[in-house]
Structures are given as structure tokens and as C-alpha cells.
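User: C-alpha cells for this complex, please. No commentary.
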Amino acid sequence: MLGTAIIVFREVLEAALIVGIVLAASRGLLGRGWWIGAGVGAGLAGAALVAAAAGSIAAMAAGFGQELFNAAVLLTAVVMLGWHNVWMKRHGQELAAQVADLGQSVRAGARPLYALALVVCVAVLREGSEVVLFLYGVAVSGGNQGADMLVGGVLGLVAGALSGLILYLGLLNIPTRHLFTVTSWLILLLAAGMASQAASFLMQAGFLPAFGDQLWDSSSFLTMDSVIGRVLHTLVGYDDRPAGIQLVFYLITLSTIGLLMRSVPRLRPSGQRCGR
Amino acid sequence: MRLGLGVMMTSLVFGGLGTVSVRAEDLSYTLVLQDHRFQPSQLEIPAGQKVRLVIQNLDTVTEEFDSPDLHREKLVAPGTTGVMMIGPLNPGRYNFTGEFHAETAAGLLVVK
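Assistant:
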């Protein structure tokens, strides 16, 4: 039971942390609950589809379909996160001022929410499909252990979801005028980490050179198997034994989104504040 | 629309990269998974060389080949064969498991 719980927890944790950040980053936007809920729902449906088609996906591209699929999904999320950050750079201050002044949701248009919903969707889809395949295997071969392992699965799911909730509640403690700055930084690092993961998949498929199979080994200090290692892996892209190409992808993503954010002129919140 | 974008991006990647095939001269090694055990459970490969690792899953459920040491993770559906590229690696011992049945599915890659 514990073994099942741990495996499910590891898969759910990553998606839950991403949902937590996205929820905090979209605070005060009208309709965000609906959009993010739809993202999670579509992700769950997609997870079941991907799990059912896992064999066919894997067989594509000369046996490297799974790696290409994962890389494509991750890079889609990277683009969406980058786009969200650029949008936030432009509108964030204005948004924070309105949320702080009025204490209520503001209409910002659906566009940033659309991007965030897509990010949530692909995060749930990737991790969820592994959970579905694992639990399906348990159900097929489980026998009398089936019920026991189901309990383990639910425990893992709840523990993973709680971790995301704790992160979200922690972020909400940040004063509103700083919140979006913090979430933008978190999303920048999240995107860079995802790009590094995508590079790892493309390398595994032999489509990218490693540029050094192992730049360093910090696994004796903090292994990626530990909960903290897992959390940092998701949040900032921590890797205990990264390949050179991963660092290249990480830095390119960091600097590209960072430069785009710098180059966007910021909208001043002056218009909303007159009459105070 | 969400799916459409995903499919479009995926097909772009497939279209662009799918034709790149693994070079024929790559060394290839096969691990067979049966009754949630790897055969052979210990495999020796040369150091400093990129090799192709093939995992043949003869079981009735999906397995996830997982190796933090090798930095590799791959789902292998029942009755199918998974391929991945590893290396070039430094000499050493690298553990791997079938994550979904780690109590029995464990093996060691020795790089010399």
C-alpha cells in the first residue's frame, strides 16, 4: 500500500505544485476558477486518452514517440508560461493595484487564463497518464491486493494535492502588490526547468547531443528521489546529475523570457487610481 | 483547440525530427522484462560510447524503466519494446529499476 502511495504521490506532486503556482499567479482574475478547473478536467481526460494510446504513441518515430510527445508537451507549456510572464509584466502592476484597492476580481480578458489553463492541462496530462497506467496495471494484476493498493493510490493522490494546496496558501500570504512579482519569478524558473526536462527527453531519444553526460553529481547532497529534491526539480528545475544540453536549454529559456519581460513597456496603474 | 495546438506542435516535432533515425553503427543491448524481472539483471557496456538500450516487456502490464543514475525514464507498454539512447558514459555502476515493480525488477548496468 505504501509503495503504491509513494509512486502516485511522486507523480501527483509535480502537477499539484504547478496548479498551486498557477492559482496564485491568476489571483484576482475573473473566471480563473472556471478556466483552471477546465484545464485540470481536460488534463484528466487527456491523461486517460494518452494512457490508452501509450502503446501507439511509444511506437511512433521509430520507438521514440513517447520522448517526442513529452518534449512537445513540455515545450508548449514553456511557451505559454513565457507568454503569461510577458503579459503580466505589462499588466501586473495595474492588476495588483486593482485587486488591492477593490479587493475583488477584475476582468482581464480570457487570454492569460487561456495560457495558464493550457499549462495546467499539460501538467495534469503528463503526470496523470503515468498514474493511470500504473493503477491500471495494479488493477489488472492486483488480485486480493487490489483494494489495499487502491487505498494507497488515493493516499498518494491526497498527499500530492495537499502539497500543491500548501504552496498556494503560502503564496497567498504574500502582500498583493508583491504577489505577482513573486509568481512571475516562480513561473520563469518553472519554465526553465521544463525546458531542461524537454532537452533530457530529446537527448534520451538521441535527437540532441548530451554536451557532457553529467555536468555534476549532487545526488549525495540532495537526491532527486527525495521529496525535497522532487519539489525543487519541479519548482526551479533542480537536477542532481544534469547533462550539458539541459543546462543550455535552461539558460536559453531563462534569458529569452527574461529579456522579453524587460523589453515590454509596463502599463502604469495611474488611470485606475485617480479619484482616490 | 487546446488539443489541436498540441497535435500541431507534436506533428511539427515529429515531422521535423521523426526522420532522423538512429545510426546503424550504434551498439544495441536488450533487456527482457518477464515476471517483473530484468533479464539479464546485470549488463555490461563500453564506456565513452553512445549505445542503444532496448527493453522488451513480455509482461501483461506497463512498466516504467527508471534510473536516476542513468537519468532515464521510460514507459514500456505490455508486449512492446522500448528503445532509448544512453551515454557516452563514464566507467562505473549504474542502477536501474522497473519503477512499478521495484521489489523484483531491479538491475545493474556496468560501464567499463
